[in-house]
Amino acid sequence: MTRLPLLDIDDHIEYSTKKKVSDIIQEIGEDAFLDLESEIVQSIKPQGMIISCSGSVPLRQEAMNHLRETGKSIYIDVPVSVIIARLHRMKADRIIGMNGKNPMTLEEVLDYRQSFYDMSYDYRFACTDDITADEKAIRFFNFCKTKIPHLIPEESDRAKFAA
Asked: Alpha-carbon distance 50 to 6, whole Å?
């Protein structure tokens, strides 16, 4: 879709620490993990890449400030019901807020995070669940062409992207 490499924050943390994110959270706790995650994010030189943030990165404003100082942030706004279904399918065991000092339900965690997400983006892409994955990808591609056209190769077209 773009000319830029992708860096996934969770993958980067696991590569940098040689440990799974879930193991790190279990070892040091949620607050210390958020601090570590923020430090790692702030050590990244984000120019020239797309960074896929975990859902907890916006919980530390300094991490998001660092990313937004050198680039644009797109919040892919997915319905809570879809997030919950995805997390259950993934058997996710590393959701910050569910196992800390004041454990919350998954729904409460997502509700709590919403205000942080709302403060942390330049562009918001609403991702509804009533269309196919291919159609979502096409809509996101077109959204990016409109909002950040310098990231989209000119030779790209809808048919190539959907294939």
From this structure: 5
Q: Give me the pLDDT at residue 153, please.
A: 63
Compute the mean pLDDT over every residue in the chain, rounded to the nearest whole number: 85
Q: Tell me the average pLDDT across 142-155.
A: 78
Identify the residue whose tokens are 């030779």.
155
Every domain of the chain and the residues it spans: 6-151
- The Cα-based distances of 4 to 7, 10, 24, 46, 155 in angstroms read 10, 18, 29, 11, 15
CA geometry: angle at 23 spanning 17 and 116, to 5°?
85
DSSP notation for 30-98: HHHHHHHHHHHHHH---TTSEEE--TTGGGSHHHHHHHHHHS--EEEE--HHHHHHHHHHHT----TTS
Question: In the prediction, which pLDDT does 157 show?
Answer: 44
CA-to-CA distance for 146 and 144, rounded, in angstroms? 5
Domain 6-151, what architecture?
3-Layer(aba) Sandwich (3.40)
- Cβ atoms of residues 42 and 63 within 8 Å: yes
Cα separation, 120 vs 147, in Å, equals: 16
Q: What is the pLDDT of residue 28?
A: 94
